[in-house]
Amino acid sequence: QIDVSNDDSCASAAKTLKDKGVALYALVNNAGLGLAQDEAGNADVQQILNTNYYGPKRVTEAMVGLMDPTEGRIVNTSSGGASMWLKKQDATLKSAMSNPDMTFDELEETIKAQIAANNLGMGNGYGMSKAALNGLTLIHAKAYPNLKVVALCPGWINTSMTTGFDFQMSVELLPPEHGCISSLVCLFSEVTSGYFYGSDGVGSPLTMTCDLEIPACEGEDNPDQDKYNNCG
Questions:
Q1: pTM value?
Q2: Alpha carbon 13 to chain centroid distance?
Q3: Cα separation, 232 vs 222, whole angstroms
Q4: Cα separation of 158 and 183, whole Å?
Q5: Among residues 151, 144, 133, which one has the least CA distance to residue 57?
Q6: What is the pLDDT of residues 109-155, one digit of tens each?
């Protein structure tokens, strides 16, 4: 077991694997807190960030030394909530949160500024925390150039996290197996490090939401919403 919100737990898990001689092909950061989960009911933005953003940072930095140095992959389970939040921000914030050359310190400053401004969006910071995770994906993609580091959206999957959101968001909740599509692409298909992949396994822009079966993201600095449709 591992508690992604605890430094010692992450370090202990990594040591246990190292002592057993374990080498990792892939690391999937899947723990999440927010939306309709019972545990999220009383969670504040710091607790949500601690699981959704700092958690993957802790686990990745604890485990990266165990990764296959040439084939390894780090897959961060993000959310469409990230782009739902970011697409509503001004051009300066969009640019800051999608800059492939941003540093961790810069991302930290940006996050703290949004908290101070109470710019949290849906789920008491859930969308913002996932946008931060996408930013962290960019940072780690550059920090670990020998690995493939990507983020993904599993889609609106019927779980305890999404209970009731089919009515709130006017979306159809999909069966759990659909949530594996983007994961399998990110784990076993050709991907571009630093990219965010939608629920159909297609590369998607960070700064806007996308319908299914869109064109693959072309990495534009200022993508056109009409090109990627108008979901969300």
A1: 0.85
A2: 22
A3: 18
A4: 16
A5: 133
A6: 999 999 999 998 877 788 899 999 999 999 999 999 999 999 998 86
